[in-house]
């Protein structure tokens, strides 16, 4: 049995330079286009102040209007084109590492799990969002 303290990691390789990946990951006008784990969800609003001490808030909502919540937190560390680390409102930590390759970018996201849903469900949900991000970047 996995401990709730165990971190979860998801990752992807995006066929785009790190500068483009960084901009599309952090720009609110882009976040609203890719930040959903499935087609029946969307993010109609996003705010982002990408700097240590800055905050972010993305409204995540079911398309049928049945449920929504703010995904929000505060940035702990930001190293342009390399690292984004933040803490969520419930204290969980998330770290994203951007590694530039030959015209591609590897993105690795490591986060503390929440205690409500199974680890596998959380990993699959966050991976789905990362997969949507990859598709968005590579098609724009």
TrEMBL record:
It comes from the Bacteria. CDD domains: SRPBCC_CalC_Aha1-like_4 (cd08897). Belongs to the AHA1 family. InterPro entries: ASHA1/2-like_C, START-like_dom_sf. Signal peptide: none annotated. SUPFAM superfamilies: Bet v1-like. Gene3D superfamilies: 3.30.530.20. Pfam families: AHSA1 (PF08327). This is SRPBCC domain-containing protein. Residues 16-138 form the Activator of Hsp90 ATPase homologue 1/2-like C-terminal domain.
